[in-house]
Amino acid sequence: MGLTREQAAGKIMVALDYANAESAEKLLNELQGIPCYMKVGMQLFYAAGPAFIESLKKRGYLVFLDVKMHDIPNTVKGGANSVTKLGVDMFNVHAAGGSAMMEAALEGADAALASGQARPSVIAVTQLTSTSAQVLNEEIGIAGSVEEAVVRYAKLANKAGLSGVVASPVEVQAIKEACGTSFQTVTPGIRPAWAETNDQSRIMTPKDALLQGTDYMVIGRPITAAAEPRAALESIIEELI
Predict the structure, then answer these.
(1) How far apart are CA 65 and CA 77, in angstroms?
(2) Active-site residue among 11, 26, 57, 68?
(3) pLDDT at residue 78 in the model
(4) Is 176 annotated as catalytic?
């Protein structure tokens, strides 16, 4: 598909959905040398803390800290400041927090930059890939389709100056059309054809997600729960080349 092996690997974010650092170490050792992103979510970050992020950076990994900040602007500004000091390459906030909150995240990140340090990509969560139209309409209370809600949040994030959004792969084209091709999309809900769908309702294969134009694809259990994680990741990379 026109990508080098390194470029394909760089589009994959391995979701380290583990209870502690020790559990993640086995996988990290197995994947050593593959230049993919590592995504650290709430469970692992709350258990292992900043030291784990620093250890990933020392190993040379790009790190997406997926803690989905959503609070008043001043609190998010402080949180953004703290995680930027850890050296993360990307972190996220909830677009539902509004423009002022998203702008505050950028301010917090900028205030934390050390000499020569690049600002991390700050992206916004639109709607979780577990959110169906029924949940959106009847439980969250937002009218219209999931895609309409996602694009509305993407436009809000783009206007606030964020680098991109987290969305399902089925909304990538609509987001790119609304916000431009340089506006990044980070897409969970990626499942190779040979993997189980688990608890996500808006999913796509890695190859199809790439054809949609996504920038990064988050993949967890198809790799982390595989009998041979390295072989699973290599298989996905092959699919993208």
Answers:
(1) 15
(2) 68
(3) 98
(4) no
